[in-house]
Amino acid sequence: MSADARDEALVEVAVALPVRGTFHYRIPEHLRDALRFGHAVIVPFGKRHVTGFVVADPGADAPDDAPTDTELKPIEDLLAPDPLFGPRDWDLYSFMARFYLAPLGEALRTALPPGIFQTSRRHVRLTDAGRAALRTEAPAKRARAVLQVLSAKGEMRLESLLKSAEGVGVASLAQMAAHGWIEIVSELARATARIKYVDHFEAVHHLTPEHIQEALGRGKVRRAVWDALRASPVP
Predict the structure, then answer these.
(1) Are residue 68 and residue 95 in the same domain, yes or no?
(2) What is the pTM assigned to this prediction?
(3) Burial of 188 (C-beta count, 10 Å sphere; 0-12/13-18/19+)
(4) Which domain holds residue 44?
(5) Is the pLDDT of residue 3 over 50?
């Protein structure tokens, strides 16, 4: 790895996909102070955007075989303002991945609430050039079928369009996009659930008995709450 790459702020991410290993991303300036271990993030992966999880302390040294900084892509954004898991949870999740021989990102996806994840979907839309091409003999039979479907139905998800236009594949759509007849765009699908935060309380252990007695005073309710906290396991 180059010296520049070592100076770059990097983070190790497990993506919520059935792929082995983890991936390094650049930390953009606006996330330098906010990003933490356990955060869920939106990252580019190939031609789409997916949910990923920060599985190492941000800024930790990247391995020597990590891509150079010019090859690494930046994190797009945080999925939630607070981390979804901490070190104790991480021990369980990483054990699950090893025990079941599962990709780490898939183990995390299984363990965490399913509705919080986001991934991008590709949509296809007809351009003005495509509408003009429909009025000529230029498009071949299959390309013309695609243009006609888009003209009738408007913007469509790529998967739906491929089902509607028989015999047309992604390569054919890429050629049509190169002609300027269609546009293929990626958009993030909305999460179907909100992350719920629950407040919890635990007893502190650094106070002397004198300090505790002074804080509790003679209040019976405060004393009962304190006794309940001391008797409860740490959440």
Answers:
(1) yes
(2) 0.57
(3) middle
(4) 3-116
(5) no
